[in-house]
Amino acid sequence: MMSRRTARDPGLPLLIWTELAEIGRLQAQRLSLETRIAALRPHSHRRVELEARLRDLTATQLKIEATIRGRS
């Protein structure tokens, strides 16, 4: 019998290794930004800029994850 793929199974890791590496890199950048943001005052200009960058990184990461799920 053939087993069905579950919705959580993203496919073969060898075929999507570049995307997985990019997701890992983006996640590391996000964690770094979150640490830096936590150290700043709530309404500082630098914090606002870092929060905008964090939103952009998160959106990029979600797009890559969606393309991986779309392939499976």
Topology:
Layout: H1 17-38, H2 45-71
Helix pairs in contact: 1-2
Description:
It is a single chain. The protein has 72 residues and is mainly alpha-helical. The protein has one domain (17-71). It has helices spanning 17-38, 45-71. Helix 1 packs antiparallel against helix 2.
Termini gap: 20 Å
| Broad structural category | mainly alpha
- Please indicate the count of domains: 1
Shape: elongated
Mean pLDDT: 88
Q: Helical percent range?
A: 55-70%
Major sheet characteristics? none
Query: In percent terms, what proportion of residues is strand?
Result: under 5%
Q: What oligomeric state is this?
A: single chain
Annotation, overall tally of beta strands: 0
What series of H and E elements makes up the topology? HH
Radius of gyration: 17 Å
Low confidence ranges: 1-6
Q: Counting H and I runs of at least 4 residues, what is the number of helices?
A: 2
Short key terms for the protein model shown above:
single chain; 72 residues; mainly alpha; 2 helices; 0% strand; elongated; disordered N terminus
Entry summary:
This protein is an all-alpha fold and 72 residues long. 68% of the residues lie in helices and 0% in strands. α1 (17-38) runs antiparallel to α2 (45-71).
